[in-house]
Design goal:
Elements: E1 6-11, H1 17-29, E2 33-38, H2 54-59, H3 65-71, H4 74-94, E3 100-105, H5 107-116, E4 126-130, H6 138-141, E5 147-150, H7 162-178, E6 190-195, H8 200-212, E7 216-221, H9 225-235, E8 241-246, H10 249-254, H11 268-272, E9 276-281, E10 285-288, E11 303-307, E12 310-314, H12 317-332, E13 338-343, H13 360-373, E14 380-383, H14 390-410
Parallel strand pairs: 1-2, 1-3, 3-4, 4-5, 6-7, 6-8, 8-9, 9-13, 13-14
Antiparallel strand pairs: 10-12, 11-12
Helix pairs in contact: 1-7, 4-5, 8-14, 12-13
Length: about 400
């Protein structure tokens, strides 16, 4: 970056004006321009110019700052400020207003800072100095590339411990902005694919075929975090097509497994209108932790220890009927080319003839449920293969490329 980077600094300027003034000074010393956004509901600061005040943040979600103060509900206030800041930052980024964002705080400040970063794209530098940095913040961080820096002491007043931390954070984010990273385009040569150990043979074959044709394949582990990351990047426009081979996260969401990806799983490609091939890969299983961690109501079910810390539960006919309906209803909302491929001889490595989860009747219940609930415009293709048969992967790739070709000709 040849010109000065512009850093957006946000925080509760009502109670922490002095410490944010120091951060602003550190950013300026590093050669950065600074834009400031106040998320403090009780007032502001005169120690430095504030570009976006808290009332503007509230108005972004049609709330009134005076009403928030009157209610005297801190949790509600932070929830509103988080939503508002996320909208404000997204709009400012769309106008190329800043090159990186930094915030800091305790519990409330950290919550709003992390929430505000959720609408910002992968690759944009993001730093949060927090008293909670050493705790599990996976839910708040989500799939975003946010750098957490422990404040060690409370983010309340300047002292000899927190000063160098703030100085280092300021230097870090300015340096991050100076790295010349090419913007990620909407590439006609980039494809997302989901996998599990139980579908890796299929995914490896698909990847080999696609790379041989010049495509870049990005693989996402269907462990919950991976599914969320894939959906997020699809929505950001990073892919031209999706091979959703492993949709097991739907089963974990429904039955409280450890690999749930949330209610938006299997929806992003449909919203973007990009071609997708979807397979009920590994929907023969729900993932739990150790044997001891399996919920009591499932203790008598067919269980299999994949590794000592992962216990798989075989889905049954009744559960697959429900899963099939959920699966189909998600795809019914798709606006782009979509097709379902169903491997008749098994949905996972351990759902194969002679293996522990082989159960054709349960799989048939899933197949019938998907077909019954899937709208006629979405092709459902039964294939006489196991999911890890090379012929199945070949067909998946062939169909996806056919869809993508049709899409490009339409454009």
């Amino acid at each position: 970056m040849t010109q000065k980077p512009t850093i957006l600094m946000l925080g509760c300027f009502d109670t922490k004006g002095e410490i944010f003034a120091f951060l602003r000074g550190c950013l300026s010393e590093q050669g950065a321009e600074v834009i400031t956004v106040n998320i403090g509901v009780m007032g502001s600061t005169a120690l430095f110019p504030v570009d976006v005040e808290a009332n503007t943040v509230c108005e972004a979600v049609e709330e009134n700052l005076s009403d928030i103060r009157t209610k005297n509900n801190r949790g509600l206030a932070m929830e509103i400020m988080g939503r508002g800041a996320a909208i404000v930052l997204k709009e400012m980024y769309a106008h190329n207003s800043f090159d990186g964002v930094i915030g800091m705080g305790g519990g409330s400040g950290t919550y709003v800072t992390l929430r505000s970063m959720q609408n910002l794209p992968l690759g944009l530098p993001k730093i949060c100095i927090s008293t909670l940095a050493s705790k599990d913040l996976s839910e708040q961080i989500g799939v975003k590339d946010i750098v957490m820096m422990p404040s060690i002491v409370d983010v309340a007043a300047l002292n000899s411990i927190i000063k160098p931390i703030i100085q280092q954070a300021a230097a870090a984010i300015v340096a991050m902005c100076e790295v010349d990273i090419a913007k990620t385009p909407i590439s006609s040569k980039r494809i997302a694919i989901s996998m599990f150990g139980n579908t890796s043979v299929c995914v490896d074959r698909c990847t080999l075929l696609l790379e041989a044709k010049g495509y870049e394949v990005m693989t996402f582990h269907a462990n919950g975090v991976g599914g969320k990351a894939m959906e997020s990047l699809i929505l950001e426009g990073c892919f031209a097509g999706v091979l959703d081979i492993t949709t097991t996260e739907l089963a974990d969401d429904l039955f409280s497994g450890i690999c749930g990806a949330g209610g938006q799983r299997m929806e992003a490609a449909g919203k973007r209108g990009i071609p997708q091939i979807v397979v009920p890969g590994c929907m023969d299983m729900v993932n739990f932790g150790t044997q001891q961690s399996v919920p009591e109501k499932y203790k008598g079910r067919q269980l299999y220890s994949w590794v000592p810390t992962v216990t798989l539960m075989r889905t049954n006919k009744k559960e697959n009927q429900v899963l099939g309906e959920i699966f189909a209803n998600k795809l019914n909302q798709a606006t782009g080319h979509t097709a379902v491929l169903f491997p008749e001889k098994g949905l996972s490595q351990i759902d194969a003839e002679g293996n522990v989860f082989f159960n054709p009747e349960s799989n048939q219940a899933l197949s019938k449920s998907i077909q019954h609930n899937l709208k006629s415009e979405v092709p459902f293709v039964n294939l006489p293969f196991h999911i890890n048969d090379l012929a199945f992967a070949d067909k998946a790739v062939e169909m996806l490329l056919g869809m993508m070709n049709a899409e490009s000709q339409r454009d």
